[in-house]
From TrEMBL:
<dbReference type="GO" id="GO:0003825">
    <property type="term" value="F:alpha,alpha-trehalose-phosphate synthase (UDP-forming) activity"/>
</dbReference>
<keyword id="KW-0808">Transferase</keyword>
<comment type="similarity">
    <text>Belongs to the glycosyltransferase 20 family.</text>
</comment>
<dbReference type="GO" id="GO:0005992">
    <property type="term" value="P:trehalose biosynthetic process"/>
</dbReference>
<dbReference type="GO" id="GO:0004805">
    <property type="term" value="F:trehalose-phosphatase activity"/>
</dbReference>
<keyword id="KW-0328">Glycosyltransferase</keyword>
<protein>
    <submittedName>
        <fullName>Bifunctional trehalose-6-phosphate synthase/phosphatase</fullName>
        <ecNumber>2.4.1.15</ecNumber>
    </submittedName>
</protein>
<comment type="similarity">
    <text>In the C-terminal section; belongs to the trehalose phosphatase family.</text>
</comment>
<dbReference type="GO" id="GO:0005829">
    <property type="term" value="C:cytosol"/>
</dbReference>
Amino acid sequence: QFTDRGNNQKSYFMKILIIANRLPVKIERTDDSFIVKRSEGGLATGLGSLEIDAEMHWVGWPGIHVENEDEKREITEKLAALNYHPVFLTGEEIETYYEGYSNSTIWPLCHYFFSYVQYKAEYWEAYRRVNGLFCEEALNFIDDNDIVWIHDYQLMLLPKKIRDNRPNVMIGYFHHIPFPSYELFRVLPEREEVLKGLLGADLIGFHTHDYMRHFISAVYRVLDLNCNLDEICLQDRIVHVDAFPMGINYEQYHQATSLPEVKKISKRLIEELGDQTIILSVDRLDYSKGILHRLEGFANFLENHPEYHKKVSLAMIVVPSRDAVERYADLKTQIDQSIGKINGIYSTLGWTPVYYFYQSFPFNELVALYDIADIALVTPLRDGMNLVAKEYLATKNRKPGVLILSEMAGAANELTDAIIINPNDTQEIESALLQALTMPGKEQRLRLRNMQKRISTQTVRKWANDFIAELLHINRQNNEIFQK
Ligand code: G6P
């Protein structure tokens, strides 16, 4: 049972359909079958804890490339048991819709990498077509009065497509990455259709007020619609826009250091590393993450501060991602070279300046690293939110630690007690490292306490519930207006 913000008496019984590019699963091929494993990312956790009495369904790409109809049927049946409904993509669609329009056009545009943006007619055609495939699959499960919640930049045309077919459902859309300023967005040839696609929603959410403002400004200038700070007036309805900063499952991270397995890993790491100070960085492989600038900042630091040689190491985790996209593959080579150069110059027989891991880590190992790390260096050039910064802070309960955070991450709006830096300024990265290394324990604890207070209340659970509550509230208002 769920009560919305405005009416404590009313309860709702309905379906919620979550539509995202990826289903929250990992599918592995065995000799003659498939194994489906749930992958509990932030989104799945938040949506799993909705305070609403509704049946949950997911529609999304299962992340595996299969063309054989029997195999598709087998996967579909296995997923149906979880209320997950797959949209299968062909090899060509993966190339043009996913690697193409989503990750070579929209992604660089929204992250201010203007010169990386690729315009290809076949990318746009595939994006339209695949948004249509998601719509077809979703329509099998949507009845009037259900809630449809669409996620992220891969599916910006979907709100309108669903609205055209089911005018009475409640439609929410959340944009997980930055929305760029109008001056950048306007360069997109398909700007009009993309915005109209989004306006099929009743509620459009962003992580920050800045992204919200950029979006409304783009709608006003491109579509010439009547807008105010958080509403867009269409002929027959109003689209609401709001900021919902996404959080994490705070308790899961905060309690992790008491898990026996995590304690064991932390103990082993501490024994192996001795009294070395560890700076930790964790990202997906992506040019928006500022990995090369970070390495340059660390190299400057080593050059100018020999007193820290053999005492400080950077543990850099880079999680493989989108490696079929050229820019990502090039970046991987550059990172390898940069780390090779630093280690080549400064390593001694007993000391490695950069420990480099090109792999993803299981939860227990990741939190053990958060636990032992003295400093987290989170320096994206652009980032919608950045949850690594929040995970690091939440895990810190055995000993304190310092967060160095880019002002270009959405999280910087909330985590104002971090050492905030401009990630383009490698000298600033160097001086932030010095400040962190010399920060008294008392100050570390004070800053940490302030930030933990914030992230322990603004959790992913709250994020998801706030969004749905606002969507229900808007729907009730609309119904009242309609009845009058
Ligand atoms: C970002 C995007 C997500 C995406 C994730 C992983 O966080 O906002 O929509 O799922 O990256 O990227 P991938 O391309 O592997 O799905």
